[in-house]
Amino acid sequence: MIPSRDDMYEALAERHGVDFQKKVSSASVVVCGIGGLGSNISIALARAGVGKIHIIDFDRVDISNLNRQQYFPEQLGMYKTDALRETLSHIAPYCEITADCVKLDENNIPELLKDCDIICEAFDNAEEKAVLVNCVLEKLPEKYLVSGSGMTGIDSANTIKTRRVMKNFYICGDGESDIADGTGLYSSRVMVCAGHQAHMILRIISGKYDV
Amino acid sequence: MITVNGEKLDFSGTVKELLGVLGYGEKRVAVELNENIVPKTEYENTHISDDDKLEIVRFVGGG
């Protein structure tokens, strides 16, 4: 039997503080791309008690995802939006989880992202990252945007940092390591970057805007 | 002199030309000029003047 909404809220408020919990429970975040970064980010946000999480991805769960993405072998072939929604609903049964199973592009980004307070870029393709970031900075400049770039390979986890590069735009990662270099993706280093992104989002929600 | 990502640079030209000089692919960047985002369609027409400050974010793949 799962605890009541009030019991879960109180347990979170006890750990995070009443002020933080109040803010986080009324916040909304859209996570664009729910692969290695986005699935881990979404889970961290759900555990913290974010009130509304909107997930967007067009892809299905593939066996090649299982080394770092938060999916189960029995979910292979499912749309990632359906699979992660199920997982998130187990973690945070009272979180409002919505999903769009669609490929984001310049035409649909403004409409699909406009209703959330904070936008999280969690794609894997460098050019698609740039399209999303440019589109948000141009069309939705008032939104906070947290992006990830550079988390491949087995190099030190300590090179992954959060930087505030523009007023409302933060970027997490080492800024250098590229999947094109063939260094592979490791769950732990991807999770470090995802942790940076999720943490910056929670800091913004709590009113702390410096890195 | 202009400032790119906090470093001084002697350069005169457009945003497109600057990206070429730095060897940055246009499709993988976001460019801010004096705290305003430069739309990709304007890279060719946006001239950089002395004392301008630019932030260029270059994306790498993986996620």
Residue share in helices of chain A? 25-40%
User: What are the secondary-structure elements of chain B, in order, as H or E?
Assistant: EEEHEEEE
Rounded to the nearest angstrom, the radius of gyration of chain B is 11 Å
The main pleated sheet of chain B reads as: 5 strands, mixed
Instruction: State the shape of chain A.
Output: globular
Q: Provide the structure class of chain A.
A: alpha/beta
CATH superfamily of chain A: NAD(P)-binding Rossmann-like Domain
CATH topology of chain A: Rossmann fold
Helix and strand composition category of chain B: mainly beta
Secondary-structure element string of chain A? HHEHEHEHEHEEEH
Q: What's the N-to-C terminus distance of chain A?
A: 39 Å
The number of helical segments of chain A is 7
Q: Any idea of the CATH class of chain B? A: Alpha Beta
Q: What shape does the CA trace of chain B take?
A: globular
Residue-averaged pLDDT of chain A: 97
Helix content of chain B: 10-25%
The largest sheet of chain B has its strands arranged as: 2-1-7-4-5
Q: Radius of gyration of chain A over alpha carbons?
A: 16 Å
Low-confidence stretches of chain B: none
CATH topology of chain B: Ubiquitin-like (UB roll)
